[in-house]
Design a protein that fits this description.
Blueprint lengths: L6 H21 L6 H7 L3 H7 L6 H22 L5 H11 L2 H11 L1 H4 L4 H5 L6 H19 L1 H37 L6 E8 L6 E8 L2 E8 L2 H17 L1
Antiparallel strand pairs: 1-2, 2-3
Helix pairs in contact: 2-9, 4-5, 4-9, 4-10, 6-9, 9-10, 10-11
């Protein structure tokens, strides 16, 4: 008599394969050695509970180093006029835990992560530190699977996405951030002074100055007063943070 067919197991296996294939498509790399991706997605809690034997921690160690190297290379080549201090500051912003977790979430790594029962129930798939770790582990796995170029492509896409987001956030948020910084120092709120207008009515360019604490701290130009104020605030912020 033949043993009964375990349709649940077949369904689980099929869904895992589909999930992995979709993940590879989002990452932009198809693994020749699937066991590397499997390892990169395995948390210690799952390995301990199932006896799988390995988890992503060694790959995370490698991926952290790979990410640091490729981020430094990308910033160095992209910003020939930046000083070492400026490059270091930007690098730390781009590879901070929160930023990495955001990329991991965007790629769907949390959904594919293999967790122990307790870790899964405690919300492990959405933990910032865990998501950052699994992203680094995945980069390490790609490095071992195919070398530097595929990892460089993945990291470049991440960094370009991150820089665009940071620049947009910075532009939109400069006035608010400056107001908070000025208030924290006990000063009066910034004053934005229109000092000049150029061009015809349908295409004006506005010149704005940002004053506080009795001094000029920033200036900006823009096709609208709001845009010029944001630029002036950003320049004033740079001065304060510098």
């Amino acid at each position: 008599m033949n043993p009964p067919i375990d349709s649940t197991a077949d369904s689980t296996c099929e869904s895992t394969v589909e999930l992995t294939a979709a993940l590879e498509q989002r990452i932009g790399h198809s693994f020749k050695r699937r066991e590397l991706l499997e390892m990169a997605l395995t948390h210690r809690s799952f390995a301990n509970e199932t006896g799988f034997g390995v988890n992503y921690e060694r790959l995370e160690f490698l991926g952290d180093a790979v990410l640091g190297l490729l981020t430094a290379e990308w910033l160095y080549l992209r910003n020939p006029r930046m000083t070492e201090g400026e490059l270091s500051k930007l690098k730390s912003q781009l590879v901070r835990t929160g930023a990495l977790a955001g990329h991991a979430e965007r790629l769907g790594l949390g959904e594919a992560l293999r967790l122990g029962v307790g870790e899964a129930r405690s919300g492990g798939r959405s933990k910032v530190s865990l998501l950052a770790d699994v992203l680094e582990a995945t980069l390490g796995a790609i490095w071992l699977d195919a070398g530097v170029e595929p990892v460089r492509a993945v990291v470049r896409e991440m960094l370009e996405y991150g820089v665009v987001g940071q620049e947009a956030l910075s532009r939109a948020d400069s006035k608010t951030r400056l107001q908070e910084a000025v208030q924290a120092r006990g000063w009066e709120l910034p004053e934005y002074r229109l000092v000049a207008e150029e061009g015809p009515d349908h295409s004006k360019l506005f010149h704005i100055e940002c004053w506080f604490d009795g001094a000029l701290h920033g200036s900006g130009k823009g096709k609208s007063k709001k845009q010029a104020q944001q630029q002036a605030a950003a320049e004033a912020l740079d001065g304060l943070e510098g």
